[in-house]
Amino acid sequence: MKDQIRAILDEVGGLACPAAQVGDRDDLFVKGLSSFATVGVMLAIEEEFDVAFPDSLLVRATFASIDALAGAIASLKGQAVAA
User: Fold this and answer.
1) pTM for the complete prediction?
2) What are the residue ranges spanned by the domains of the chain?
3) Least enclosed by CB within 10 Å: which of 25, 26, 33, 34?
4) Cβ(53)–Cβ(62) under 8 Å?
């Protein structure tokens, strides 16, 4: 899952470095993710994982790190997050 998230971040996240260089807990906003880019990331994740983000998850914390995104996706799919 995290590899898929990194691929999405590389494609639409606009990070200042390749997502492969971003730690799972690193702050994505510090790495260059903009509020505007979070919309593209959200849409790409919804398509990739066949999920829909409810309004309650449309907050900065959901998009703050790869771990946070993986947790949100797992929650939406009713799965445990793999390390």
Assistant:
1) 0.91
2) 2-77
3) 25
4) yes
